[in-house]
Amino acid sequence: MRLAKGVSVIVFILMFTLGQTVVTKAATSPVFGAADSYSVLGGSIVSNTGATVVFGDVGVSPSIGVPPHVTGFPPGVVNGSIHDADTSASNAQADNTSLFGAIDQGCDTTYPGVQDLALVSPLVAGVYCSTGSFILTGNLTLAGTGVWIFKSDSTIISSPGSSVTGGDPCNVWWRAVSSIILDTTTVFLGNVLALTTITMNTGAALNGRLLAQTGAVNLNSNTITNTACAAGGGTTGGTTGGTTGGTMGGTLPSTSGLATGISNNLVGFVIVVLAGIVTASSFSTYRRNKETAI
Length: 294
Hints:
Blueprint: H1 2-19, E1 38-42, E2 46-49, E3 53-55, E4 57-60, E5 70-71, E6 77-79, E7 82-84, H2 87-102, E8 109-111, E9 115-116, E10 126-130, E11 134-136, E12 139-141, E13 148-152, E14 156-158, E15 163-165, E16 172-176, E17 180-182, E18 187-194, E19 198-200, E20 205-212, E21 217-220, E22 223-225, H3 257-293
Parallel strand pairs: 1-4, 1-20, 2-5, 2-21, 3-6, 3-22, 4-7, 8-10, 9-11, 10-13, 11-14, 12-15, 13-16, 14-17, 16-18, 17-19, 18-20, 19-21, 20-22
Helix pairs in contact: 1-3
């Protein structure tokens, strides 16, 4: 009988402890709103040098100085519309401000100071934060599916020839409270949001958007492709917290989808096994008592 009571206590403790990991959070992509059609949006000006090609709209709001506030097209080419401090650009900037706040989500992983993302690649979906700057000196691979948010308390800067691969550009977000620089021949992915300025140096390419709130967007012989995104983020409609179990040498967010699945299954398995032990123990005690009585 004492064994049965002890096992019952163990069952309760395991149910309580393992149950705590079932509740999870996951990064989510906000709705673009009026900013959806914009590949480039500046707060003060948008300037271009060279044969930049932009697929999507280009705009400025609220702007600084006298117009034009969008310059360098031509020689650059805009496969969309140019909105220079008009109502469309104003609405887009208002929604850009909302986006900047919406992706300020709770951190799954926080790096102190400057963090080179190439050194922790690959990364599963989640919210990654730096108390300093994010830099990228090589390749960052986004593994699996879900939403990635990279938040910097300072700047985000890529080195020449660096790259970001994997992931859905609608569900990859870069947020800097200062400026963002994509250096020469960088191949980048996602929605790039800076409180101040964004600069793409010669030959850098982006599948996503450049959205600057207060400062300029500076371009130089770049290619920028805008992917149409579904409401709520993602061309695939998914905003899960990750479907892979690790980062293959990188960092595993504390709320990965695999951990949740394991916890749920493990709780059920433990309950079934220990319930069987309780039943067997009770039956054994019953037999001993009956034999003693005889």
